[in-house]
Amino acid sequence: MGEPTPDANAIEAADEKYVMRPWAHPAGEPVIVARARGCVVTDVHGKDYLDLTAGYFVNNAGHCHPRIIEAVTKQLHEVLQVSGKHGTIPAIRLAEKLVNLAPRSIHKAFFSTGGSESNEFALKLARQFRKKPEIAYLENGYHGLTLGSLEVTASQKYRESAGKPLGTDNYAVPTAYCYRCKFGPHAQCKVECLDGIDAIFDAHPETAGLIAEPIQAVGGLAPPQKWWDRLDAARKKRGILLIADEIQTGMGRTGKMFAIDHYGLQPEILTGGKGLSGGVGSLGLTAASNEVAAGFFGGTTPTNGGNAVSAAGGIAMIETIFAEGLIDNAARMGRYFAEAAWALRDPWIGDVRFTGLLGGIELVKNRDTREVLGKLEMGKVKDHLHAQGMLITVSGLYGNVLRLQPPLSITAPQLDQFIAALRNTLRTVRGA
Ligand code: PMP
């Protein structure tokens, strides 16, 4: 238990009265965080939570890492923000680091203020370069909620939130949801889900780019190598640019610097956000090959893009994940987490999918039929975990996946705490 904030109730009342929240929140939420360190956040009442969401998949080095705080504090005394037409030392150094860590097809970086915006610029860049309007995205793909990024976000619920019909220049291609594959057992996979891909691309000759997360974070869906190889070959054959959205999967989250590194693919464009600034925020990345970057013309000057403080946080974040071996820890802890979850042998655990610490546990009513665990039970599972001090989110195509993405610094004893809470939760909710 941490220290309660003296006016905790007044703060919560002010939140209720003045803060606009475009979603209904479940029991116990929102958590108003007064302090956060490492993998633990403390609310205004002094209650501690193990943060399995790393903020919102942002604080990969842990909350308020001293090295990041020091770098940001130092930068605060130098320069905060300049016009995007000029530059600052941290923004240039961060661009250099990111380009050197990215796949070899990436040569230049452009900074904006967040994930959705970085994807919007990626779409613009692809269209400008190819002089074609269409963009393909994956079924189940998520690339942001601003109007441009929504056009390549698959969820109907989100698309309807636009309040207007979205453009028709974009279309979905099949995703790899192997646990729910229509074509039979995984071991015999011949990537039949992509049998129609050539016909789809041929029906859209005006396609500039294909935007995809290398591993879909919502649900933790990691396609097999052969799936990516086939999709990559089909898009390359037609000159379609690959835009790798690494907003959630980048910065070591999956046990490699970028998730695309698991597949050895060479995207022409790569986007980033979330953990990119070490938690300071307001930083998006649109990076590209020299050839594609050369075609990026004016009219794109996000005011606060690449501000010096966020960039200093980003540099410190990268230094920290390497100095502390956090990418390897993510790979190791991801394996540990998955084994511990399977070892529960809980009848509701249908699938456990971890690539590094990009994790999803899919809950089902029946392991044979894979019937999805209903909304009511999922709500209870979440509430029960919450009551035990576990901060998680629920996601997935059917809303039945526990999304588990703690800071990459998480330890085995902390994961054991979560696993114990999960065991207790599933038994209690099932018995209720
Ligand atoms: N792409 C992916 C894969 C994401 O996970 C997100 C954020 N959840 C976005 C884009 C949008 O980023 P932001 O919310 O910072 O605009």
What does it look like?
The protein has 2 domains: 8-61 and 326-431, Aspartate Aminotransferase, domain 1; 67-323, Aspartate Aminotransferase, domain 2 (3-Layer(aba) Sandwich). The protein contains 14 helices and 16 strands. It has helices at residues 8-18, 54-57, 66-76, 89-101, 115-130, 147-150, 156-160, 197-203, 225-237, 290-293, 308-323, 326-343, 375-387, 412-431, and strands spanning 33-37, 40-43, 48-51, 108-112, 134-138, 170-173, 207-212, 241-245, 269-272, 284-288, 349-355, 358-366, 371-372, 390-391, 393-395, 401-404. The strands form 3 sheets. A 7-stranded mixed β-sheet has the order 4-10-9-8-7-5-6, with helices on both faces. Strands 11, 12, 13, 15 and 16 form a 5-stranded antiparallel β-sheet that branches. The longest helix has 20 residues, at 412-431. The structure holds 4'-deoxy-4'-aminopyridoxal-5'-phosphate. 4'-deoxy-4'-aminopyridoxal-5'-phosphate (PMP) binds at residues 114-116, 119, 142-144, 213, 217, 245, 247-248, 273.
